[in-house]
Amino acid sequence: MGNKTKGLLALVGLGALAYWKYKNSSDEEKQAVKDKINNAKDNLNKWGNDLKDKANNVASQVQDKVDEVKNKAQETVG
Is-contact 30 22, C-beta < 8 A? Predict the structure, then answer.
């Protein structure tokens, strides 16, 4: 068996173990797991939005510099 096959089997095994443990846990433990998942999802969305905002700011700054250089070139030529 290759490393990919072993890794895939290990991942499936961990998933099955997690499912079994979740299925046999109490309602309070299930709610705690749901809260952790929702919190992680919210943090991931916030991180993605922050990253998108930063990328838009950088793109805007680059466009401003391009416009500035273009205007200087036109003033020099004209």
Answer: yes
